[in-house]
Design goal:
Blueprint (H helix, E strand, L loop, with lengths): L1 E4 L2 H13 L7 E5 L9 H6 L4 H12 L3 E5 L6 H10 L6 H8 L2
Antiparallel strand pairs: 1-3, 2-3
Helix pairs in contact: 1-4
Length: about 100
């Protein structure tokens, strides 16, 4: 699953909370540009299985300074991860909200 963060402090607290749920460091990645323009991540996200509409949305947000959190979860832990992410200020993409991950 993926989520967008606009503040690094919120991202950090979300990662800490996700680790407390039992996820491992290897299950969590963050992608963004700390300065300058972000690269086009559309192909990278497509390779991860992110739907193209979400990849385009994230690409635009990364250009504006957002940070993408990528969480490798099993089906049974997705809802918990989504709840944690949202509680810490993360935004799920529309496709994840539609698919029932809306906490």
């Amino acid at each position: 699953m993926t989520a967008l963060f606009w503040e690094l402090s919120s991202l950090g607290s979300a990662i800490e909370a996700l680790l407390q749920t039992g996820l491992r460091d290897a299950d969590i990645e963050a992608v963004g540009a700390l300065s300058g323009s972000a690269l086009d991540f559309t192909g990278f996200l497509d390779g991860l299985g992110v739907p193209m509409a979400d990849a385009i949305y994230y690409g635009d947000c990364l250009q504006d300074g957002g940070v993408l959190l990528i969480i490798h979860t099993h089906h049974q832990t997705r809802r918990t991860a989504a709840e944690v992410v949202c509680r810490h200020g993360g935004m799920l993409p529309p496709s994840q909200l539609v698919s029932g991950l809306n906490p």
